[in-house]
C-alpha cells in the first residue's frame, strides 16, 4: 500500500485537531498560540517540522533533511527558525556540533585549518585536535548548518494528550494505514477525556521526567528522591499508581545501597505493592521484628494483591515463635493444601523447559500446547469482545486502542452485560460458537487480551471441547472483576488425551524455580473447580529419564 506523500503531516494535523477539541481548555495560552502559528506556516515548513519530530535527534545537519516532497530544506528551515519553531546553527555548541560531523567532515576541517594529523587517526583523535581551535565551532556551523526543534516538550505534550499514555506515538497512524495492525470497530466518544485537569497532566509528566532522570543520572538519587517526596499527592487512581511506582523504584535503589532510612521514607508513601513487603523486610533486618510482624498481620488481614497475601503468610510462619499475634493468625487461617507435584528428570533441552516437559508428556500419550496466560486471556477477550468494545461513555478516545480506557474498572458499567454473557456461555454449544465465531470475525485485530501469534484455532477448539463450561464461567467471572490484577499466573501447559474428555493443567518449574503468588492462587482456584492440576518439578540429567516418582 502506498501512502500519500504528506501522510505524516495529515496524521499530525489530525492529532492536533482532536487535541484542540478534546483538551483545548487544558492548554496554556502560549501552547494554544503555538498550535495556531503552526497551522499558519507554509506547507513545506509544516512538513519539515513534522519530519524532524518523527526522527531521533535532537540536532540535524541540514544535508540530512532533504525530502522529495519538501525539496531544498534551507528555505523551510529559515521559516521555522524565524517563527521560533526551530533553533538554528548559532545555538549549537561545539559539543553539539562534533557528533553531527562525519569523520571526513572533521578531517576536511583540520586540513583547512592546517592542523596535521595521521591519516589513520581515529575520530576521537580528530575531535581532540579541533577542541582547542577557536575557529572550529563557527566553521562547523557554517558547513553543517544544523537545526533542532524548539520547545519539543510542547509537541510531546500534544501526542501524550491524544493517546493518553507514553507508550504510543505517531507511528501508530502509519502502522494502521499500512494494515500491519488492525483495530476493532468501536465508536469514539467525543467527550472521552483521560485527563480532566491540567494538574493531572503535569503530575504524570513530572513523574516521567524524574524516572528518565533516574535512568540517566543514577548518582542524583538523593535529589530525585527529594523531588519525588516533595510532590503533592494526586487523588487520581492512575496518577497515584504511577507515583507509587516511582516511589517503590526509588525505595529499592536506596535499599540496594543499604540506606534504610531513605528506603523506608519512599516505601511509606508508596502504598502500591511491594512497598509494605519491603518495609517489613527492612524492619526485621534492623531488629524490629515486632513491628515487621504487626505490618505483616495487617497485610494478611487485608492484602492489596496476591503477593502480599503469600508474603504475609510465609513471613508470619517464619517469625511465629514468641509472636502471639502471628501464631494466632496462622492457627485461625490454615494454609491451602499445596498442589500435587510431579518430579521429572529430563535432558537439558535446546529450548525452554516448558517445551521439554510438553514433549515428555506427548511421549506419554498426551497432546497439548503452551497455554499459560494466552489461553485464558484469549477466552476472556473472545467471550467478552462485544463488552470490551461496547460504547460505554468515556471508554474510547482515539482509534488506536486495544482496550477501553476504563479497564481497571471494567465490571461496574458493564455488569448486566457481563452477567448475561456468563449465563449464555454456561451452554457448551453457545460457548464454542461465541469463542470460535469471534476468533474468525476478529482474527488479527488489536485486543489487549489476545496475542494472535501465540494462538491456534485448533488449540482453542480442543480446549473448548474439554473444559467444562462452568469452569470457564467461573474463571472468566473472576477475570471480569479485575482483568489486570487477575490476568497472570495461569498454568503453563494445557494437556488432553486424544479422543477423550480428559484434560489437565501443568505448571512447569525448572531447577531452583518457585511458584509465584499468582501462580499458586490460580492453581488453588482450578483445584477448587475440580480441575486436574500438577506442578512439574524438573531436574536435569545427562539423558532424559522416566519420571522420578509417581504424581503426588
Domain unit count: 3
User: Helical percent range?
Assistant: 40-55%
Radius of gyration: 30 Å
Which ranges are low-confidence, i.e. pLDDT below 50, for 5 or more consecutive residues?
548-552
Mean pLDDT across every amino acid position? 94
Spatial strand sequence of the major β-sheet = 5-10-9-8-6
N-end to C-end Cα span:
58 Å
Largest sheet entry? 5 strands, mixed
The amount of beta strand, in percent, is 5-15%
Number of DSSP E strands: 10
Number of helices: 26
Tell me the overall shape: globular
**What is the SS-derived class?**
alpha/beta
Question: Could you explain the architecture of this structure?
Answer:
It is a single chain. With 552 residues, the chain is an alpha/beta fold. It has 3 domains: 7-183, no CATH class; 198-332, Serine Threonine Protein Phosphatase 5, Tetratricopeptide repeat (Alpha Horseshoe), CATH 1.25.40; 341-541, no CATH class. It has helices at residues 7-23, 29-40, 43-54, 73-82, 94-100, 103-113, 123-130, 136-144, 152-163, 171-177, 198-216, 221-229, 237-256, 260-269, 275-285, 289-301, 306-318, 324-332, 353-363, 372-383, 385-388, 415-424, 428-442, 457-466, 469-481, 517-528, and strands at 59-60, 86-87, 147-149, 182-183, 341-347, 367-370, 445-446, 493-496, 503-509, 533-541. Strands 5-10-9-8-6 form a 5-stranded mixed sheet, sandwiched between helices. Helix 26 (517-528) links the parallel strand 9 (503-509) and strand 10 (533-541). Helix 15 (275-285) runs antiparallel to helix 16. The radius of gyration is 30 Å and the shape is globular. The model is unreliable at 548-552 (pLDDT under 50).
